[in-house]
Amino acid sequence: MAEGKKLVIVESPTKMRSIQGYLGDGYEVLSSVGHIRDLADKKDIPADKKQAYGKYSIDIDNGFDPYYVESDRGKKTVAELKRALKGADELLLATDEDREGEAIAWHLLQTLKPKVPVKRMVFHEITKDAIRAAVDNTRELDLALVDAQETRRILDRLYGWDVSPVLWFKVQQGTSAGRVQSAATRMVVERERERMAFVSASYWDIETLAVKGSESFAARLARVDGASLARGTDFDDRGELKKAVLVLSEDEARELAAAIEAAAEASVTGVEAKPGTRSPRAPFTTSTLQQEAGRKLSMSAKHAMSVAQRLYEKGFITYMRTDSTALSTQAVQAAREQAVAMYGEKAVPLNPRVYASKSKNAQEAHEAIRPSGDTFRTPASVAGELDRDEQRLYDLIWKRTMASQMSDAKYETTTVTLSAGAGGRRAEFTASGTVYTFKGFLEAYEEGKDEKRGDADKADDQSLPALAVGDVLRLKDVEPKGHATSPKPRYTEASLVKALEEKGIGRPSTFASIIDVILNRGYVSKRGQALIPSWLAFSVVRLLEEHFADLVDYDFTAALEDDLDAIARGEQKREDWLKEFYFGSDEQVGLRNIVDNLGEIDARALNSTPIGDVATLRFGKYGPYLEVPNAEQPEGEPRRVNIPEELAPDELTPAKARELIDAPVAGDRVLGENPVNGKLVVVKDGRFGPYVQENDPPAAEEIDEETGEIVEAPEPAPKKRGAKKEAAPKPRTASLFKSMSVDTIDLDTALRLLDLPRVVGVDPESGSEITAQNGRYGPYLKKGTDSRTLQSEQQLFDITLDEALAVYAQPKYGARGASSALKEFENDPVSEKPIKVKDGRFGPYVTDGVTNVTIPRGQTPDDITYEIAVQMLAEKRAKGPAPKRTTRKAPAKKAPAKK
Asked: In Å, what is the CA distance from 124 to each residue of 144, 274, 312, 383?
């Protein structure tokens, strides 16, 4: 580094390149690539520190002092930064301006130990003006923010490492607990419990079309003889009425509809018009951005944040982790000017809108998420610089920001009441129509909505003709309609994020990673957009509720966040707070006391759920199943019934359980005899899916020709004591293809499955045999040690030698032409080789040509950014190569010495 330069350290290599261009030659900008060190694993603690730090990497008896270690990647980064620092005359720490960013800056300071002046440089958008302003307005490091981050990290380590082992022993290995993930899992499970306990109620109403001249509109029956008709909202979750209303049965509704249809007309008895206004929503915070990206763009919270991170680092939007709804004066002006340019002078109110932030959180950026700069670039103007998802999310942010400064929408809602005779009874219908007299902000943007109960009872917006009291209208298409009340809808990622924020659990910047954790742990799965808890989640939540009730209490969890904010504001001392959380106080039990006084935990009861009086659901080592008492032998082994994987917990009703129990046992169906060896071929439905198996036919009975009696087989000769028992030969088995069913598979197909792997032929060049095989990761070809993925399971039966040779003639991992990369990035900072995302036999992976790392389950190649790829490769390098599996031979037994 040239003498006299200033060293600027940012978190991300993408930001590094952008900021270097804005600052010029007097600065050198380098990246820490995130955190350079973290709490040590137990194996990394030196022997002389094991006693103090050994359990958590935290000395709980001496101020909760953490023991940090640098990762292998961190060591290389630090070495590079130290070399650059030698020639610098000033150090600017320019990491993100939240808790994590402040902590990274502090760790850099502790590790680099600079001898030159150090300043903290913060910015919330990456534009030339913003970066220059940040250089001119530096500050000191905020140690209160650092304390808050460190407290959160220590809290999570103590919580996770004390509670998770209990789950391992009582529920399942690999499970985990965390202060936010456990609360989030509990919320999803509680919603499913509500759905399981829900009792549906049925009710009927009548719909018709009212006609005036050439115009018609829909109307719904509201009252009969003055009594209000029941709607879905009139019933509680037990299916009982909450107030006195008229509930029509199907027969009554049909009889009434026939009478109304016979009358064929209704008179207008009421017309009421009410004006109204709608105001725009505030600009995006982290939470509302995740919610809207889920509703409007079908993006997961994690994917939305990944795309937002890219937009921020490329300089298109402001910092994407924020609780604030405020806009700078320049941003307000930019939004108003753009609205006027697009929709006219009336598009904006006389005075700018000011949105008050509800958050008192000191860690977050001071402005909402918006397009960067003093003038906003339109989505059309940046289309060539962004990929598809970046373009879609930028468009959403741009519209929301502009709409937030636009005028209210004005409308008028007209409600009409119609009265019709119905065989001596009086039926009253109502219809509503809304007309916008001024669209205002709706010209630019309208917020999406989550599904809610009662939506089915709401009439669609429609236009009504001009009506006056006394008008007589013709009725047609009079139709009785049956309805059933529905339980609360399941959470989606968007509605779960909203609920977490409303309860004050976690921070919006962590919601995406929390949802990702509960998906990857198998606590929750997705059906469309809905989040469905697994039976594993039920067991985990039950254990936590029964034995760690305080730790999963929503108010307690929210209070933890408030306490961390107080530490961030300097109003609370880190050590005092941790001491109270861990050791307890007069107001708090303390984590240590809870763990030390757990008492007996009945694992069987914990993993059992009665399904009415039909069966008991058990969660075992291999997943959930129904346990059914043996009616013929009550003391005998109970019967086990598999549960379809796609069956949600609320769908496992007593009736469904009985259906599963009484269903013919799938499998154990004899398909026929193998003509080659005479064995019987049967199809079975096992714990891991359907399969076919060869069984020995039953031995033929020997008949005494003289007496006609069955001759009993002689008892086998007793084996000598100590003689080694011969292992019974295992029958041949083969899994069914995904496209096959136990109900339709025939003998010929079963025999083809049993004959796999199939020899396709011999490679004429190498002389090696090519086989088609079905493996854990799908169908593939194998030639020696060289394997190639097949496109479908059917190819296992059909592929010819010529086709197989053609597959081997292509570059490995598919015929993608010159490059098999799904994504390509710039060079890795360590290997200095280009980073690519490829699709391999075992799924997509990241590689720099030297190190390969598989993309974790729950992530897609679309989620991988340059920074994430760099981090993944660095972590894989730090772990080193996987140890080779070796098989230890048992030592040869020596013969006893002769006496």
From this structure: 20, 44, 9, 23
Taking phi over 0 as left and psi of -120 to 50 as alpha, with beta for the rest, 729 belongs to beta
The helix or strand, by DSSP H or E, that contains position 827, with its residue range, turns out to be strand 821-827
Give how far Cα 881 sits from Cα of 156, 755, 838, 850, Å: 29, 37, 20, 12
**Residue the block writes with tokens 């993006």:** 299
724 by Cβ neighbours in 10 Å (0-12 / 13-18 / 19+) ranks as exposed
- Please indicate whether residue 319 is annotated as part of the active site: yes
Residue 136, judged by CB atoms within 10 A of its CB (0-12, 13-18, 19+), counts as exposed
Share of the chain above pLDDT 90, in %: 50
- Give the 3-state secondary structure of residue 359: coil
Rounded Cα distance, 568 and 549, in Å: 27
DSSP string, 649-673: GGG--HHHHHHHHHSPPSEEEEEEE
CA distances from 526 to 313, 530, 817 (A): 30, 6, 35
Is pTM beyond 0.70 here?
yes
91 confidence band (pLDDT: 50, 70, 90): very high
Structural tokens at position 243: 């107030």
Decide if 641 contacts 625 (C-beta within 8 A): yes
| 3-class secondary-structure state, position 700 | coil
Check residue 517 and report its DSSP letter.
H
Q: What pLDDT was estimated at residue 869? A: 82
Give the per-residue pLDDT at 530: 93
Answer for the pair 8, 132: CB distance below 8 angstroms, yes or no. Answer: no
Q: Which one from 22, 203, 312, 319 is the annotated catalytic residue?
A: 319
Do residues 801 and 760 make contact, with C-beta atoms less than 8 angstroms apart?
yes
Nearest to 11 by CA among 76, 77, 75, 91: 77
Higher pLDDT, 654 or 635: 654
Q: What are 255's two structure tokens?
A: 């009889």
Three-state SS letters, 169-208: HHCCCCCCCCCCHHHHHHHHHHHHHHHHHCCCCEEEEEEE
Q: How far apart are CA 868 and CA 878, in angstroms?
A: 15
Using pLDDT thresholds of 50, 70 and 90, give the confidence band for residue 640.
Answer: confident
Main-chain dihedrals φ then ψ at residue 813, nearest 5 degrees: 70, 30
Per DSSP, the three-state class of 841 is coil
CA 619 – CA 533 distance, rounded (Å):
14
Residue 249, pLDDT score:
93
Placement of tokens 């529905």 in the chain: 486
User: What is Dmax (Cα atoms) for the chain?
Assistant: 125
Judge whether residue 760 has pLDDT over 90: yes
In whole angstroms, what is the distance from residue 76 CA to residue 36 CA? Answer: 9
Residue recorded with tokens 């396709």 = 760
Lowest mean pLDDT among 41-55, 451-465, 525-539: 451-465
User: How far apart are the C-alpha atoms of 180 and 182, rounded to whole Å?
Assistant: 5
pLDDT tens digits, 345-389 = 999 999 999 987 665 443 444 789 999 988 999 999 998 899 999
The whole-number pLDDT of residue 730 equals 84
For residue 520, which amino acid is it?
N
Distances (CA, A) of 651 to 117, 195, 504, 532, 656: 65, 9, 31, 11, 7
